Prior knowledge:
Order of helices and strands: EHEHEHEHEHEHEHEHHHHEEEHHHHH
Distance between the termini: 58 Å
Helix content: 40-55%
Largest sheet: 7 strands, parallel
Shape: globular
Structural class: alpha/beta
CATH architecture of the domain at 3-146: 3-Layer(aba) Sandwich
Strand content: 15-25%
Strand order of the largest sheet: 4-3-2-1-5-6-7
Number of helices: 16
Bound molecules: NADPH dihydro-nicotinamide-adenine-dinucleotide phosphate, 1-deoxy-D-xylulose-5-phosphate, manganese (II) ion
Amino acid sequence: MRKQISILGSTGSIGRQTLDIISDTNRFSVYALACHHNIDQLIEQAERYSPVLLVVYDKAMYEPLKSAAAHLNCRVSCGMEGLVEAATADPVDIVLTSVVGSIGLMPTIEAIKAKKTIALANKETLVTAGEIIMPLAAAHGVSILPVDSEHSAIFQCLQGQHADSVDEILLTASGGPFRTLTKSEIAVRRASDALKHPNWAMGAKITIDSATLMNKGLEFIEAKWLFGVSAEQIKVIVHPQSIIHSMVRYKDQSIIAQLGAPDMRVPIIYALDYPNRYPNKLEKLDFFALKSLTFEAPDLERFPCLALAIDSLAQGGNMPAVLNAANEELVAAYLKETIGFYDIAEYIQKAMAAIPKIENPAIDDILMSDKMARVEIRRLLELRR
Ligand SMILES: NC(=O)C1=CN([C@@H]2O[C@H](COP(=O)(O)OP(=O)(O)OC[C@H]3O[C@@H](n4cnc5c(N)ncnc54)[C@H](OP(=O)(O)O)[C@@H]3O)[C@@H](O)[C@H]2O)C=CC1
Ligand SMILES: CC(=O)[C@@H](O)[C@H](O)COP(=O)(O)O
Ligand SMILES: [Mn+2]
């Protein structure tokens, strides 16, 4: 029986690679495809993959989507209700959450309540509400299968091992495009420079996060919740080649690593077809073509966003949600070239200081904190105009 999959964010980098890799298999049927506003691409995907449901989040695009989909045999929906419908419909087995940003939180929660397997690419979900999501998934007997390459690697390194034999998680980072630059050189780099990731072709937001090392900070928080370790048990190691996708050090000093070419289709299909290893036709990693694998410590002075993310986790409560929402707003501003590289860290810090801390937040507190952080960032950026 083919598994029915809903892809939230099908028009993005992860969504497109997912459709690419599953079209080589006969394991999956596409139940729903969802996007923010790129309905032209959504229609092209629908023509090829024949989903039952198409969703556009932007309500202004609902009528245009309906007209464009008139020749297709599928339902059309919009807004958060549409995303939730895609995430919870009865026939759906797996929900791939590959939207960007904290918008992924509510559909994921509803999918968990509907007992769907979650293939989680959207790291912002666990960053903002990992403390709520993980127990919720456990209570509903739902698996959260990581798609993020490092977390897929760690998950693979943990297979068949006892949780209490883990010493630490070694989370690898490429270091991004500014790894070798001085602070004053980085300070004047623009989004067009930051968008040149050395190893991965990804969406704009995560690519900027890689340049600031916020991506590694978000992944640090994601790892804490996914694998139930303490922050002290997670070490970030800069590994510029992105061949080792992460490692686990065990208490006997054995280290298990997962390696491969930097290709997201590997962790995507691993999550979707877990525990199988689908025999795909992707390029084989050629060890003799690799010059070397190197390692460095992260520099928190040049990349303060990593320290801020770790600090938000130490503060706990709603602070990671505040950090994340502030970062989303600031990355959007950096992409528009209205702020500089180091403004991102500076204003995140300001938002974290301004928003009242909430211990043990409920989902409504998380959503409110997310909103407050965005309002605060917009206010601060308006003031400096
Ligand atoms: N790209 C990668 O290699 C990796 C990505 N991730 C994570 O996966 C997630 C997606 O990243 P990526 O694919 O790069 O991002 P992209 O920017 O390439 O794609 C984002 C996708 O989300 C959709 N989207 C955005 N907002 C909404 C919304 N409100 N409602 C519905 N759909 C929405 C976009 O639709 P539209 O096209 O209409 O704007 C698009 O389909 C992020 O959380 C990222 O951190 C994790 C590891 C690797
Ligand atoms: C492909 C993937 O998982 C990204 O999150 C990637 O890890 C980004 O690279 P760095 O953040 O290590 O630069
Ligand atoms: Mn990653």
